[in-house]
TrEMBL record:
Pfam family, one: Aldedh
Localization, UniProt: Mitochondrion
Species this chain originates from: Argiope bruennichi (Wasp spider)
Signal sequence, renumbered to the chain: none
Stated name of the protein: Succinate-semialdehyde dehydrogenase
Family stated for the protein in its record: Belongs to the aldehyde dehydrogenase family.
Pathway: Amino-acid degradation; 4-aminobutanoate degradation
Amino acid sequence: MLLKSTFQIKNRFKCTIRVWRTIHNLSVPDGKTYINGKWVAAKSGKTFPVLNPANGEIVANVPDCGDEETNEAVDGCYDAFKTWKNTTAKERAGFLRNMFELQMKNSKSLAHIITLEGGKTLAESVGEITYGASFFEWFSEEARRIYGDIVPSPFKNRQLFFFREPIGVAGIITPWNFPNAMITRKVAAALAAGCTCVIKPAEDTPLSALAIAQLAEEANIPPGVINVITTSRNNTPSVGKRLCEHTKVATISFTGSTAVGKLLFEQSASTVKRVSLELGGNAPFIVFNSADVSKAVTGAMASKFRNSGQTCVCTNRILVQEKIHDDFVAALAKAMQNQLKVGEGLKPDVTTGPLINENAVRKVERHVQDALQKGANLILGGKIHSCGKTFFEPTLLTNLKKDMLISKEETFGPVAAVMKFSSEEEAIEIANSTRSGLSGYFYSEDISQIWRVAKALEVGMIGVNEGIFSCAEAAFGGVKESGLGREGSRYGIDEYVQIKYMCLGGLD
Ligand code: ADP
């Protein structure tokens, strides 16, 4: 069977991609990345392979950039900023609107790229492209609402003004689990504010970033406004450090692990950079006695198993109150058996694709083994799936305890672990007992309880009787060690602007 993708924005980068028993002709760049408006190879000529997590096959080879290419990208980006910041808000809104339309027009092919390099199911990849495009749409609208203030003056002969100005070059470092949307959420806000950017995508999923650069070229976004530095795992620390320490980079926006976020924060101190961080979570999902159990199960399925459990807002600890515990566990087990189908993301009906790589599987295995050794009960799954070494069986554990790894760290896999609790106070104490504070969920039909618990949970985002809350309008971000700043929403622009105060005197 020969399938041909329609992603032919610029035909010059056609390369053949081998996929399980099918051949797709995708116009993804072969051995080139996008710096200062040009498609270029690494100076060393080195490339690194992008692997399909479902079968280990090489999808494409991309340049292994280092410090030299990073400097070049930052210089070009800095020069482009001098012009881009002076475009009108209406012009920038127009560019972003074009990006939105191009992304939607190429939705299927862009989704295909996500599934090839990231493993998620095609349906979820299509969802990510729509979600990712919504940031271009949202920030094309926000671009025209970046207002300043005129402040009442204490002096008769002076007027006071605050301007919101673009901060400058943004260094954007993104993860593999949303290889399109985590870039668009940052880039769209940066461009709307009048900033330019250097994107360093995750080494597992650089093709989606390169596809966004192709869209930018097609949308006639000026050279240097968007740059992509593809780099291998080996070169990543040095490229990251360069971005953090470069005096021409004004801000670092990062989504990824807490450990790397802390390192980037530290490295950015030398130049007193603005830093926005969206880091790991350890989301509690609390089901109170008053909850509608069937709604809670639907929410748990969505928030736990999306992207095979690999999102930063995925449920990590399920806390269920005594009276409904057994009913909830039985209903969740049934839903998992009936609704989840493991397999390659390109196959129809598959709901649960592979994990990103074997390291990810090893972590999930370690968490399950640790829980079982410390007294958890295995209800479903528990081991590597017969589909292959990157696939893990959807797993259900009960009798989760506070000292188990799952309670303390993000599992990032298809493991639902349930803990029984007796009182509301106890649930809140357990939920807040970590240094993470990204998201949380709870189910209750008691309005007073809803208000109390929403206020008590130490997280940046809460789903109340809802398992999925992400959208461009949401203020996305965490508290405690889960991050700094907010993305999306009207606050997303704040990460890319600085306030200038002007006092205009002599007005006698
Ligand atoms: P994960 O564990 O989900 O892969 P990481 O924090 O390791 O999360 O990766 C998120 C992003 O951070 C990726 O783009 C990755 O390449 C990048 N990254 C990892 N280590 C560093 C580092 N030392 N400096 C800069 N970026 C890094």
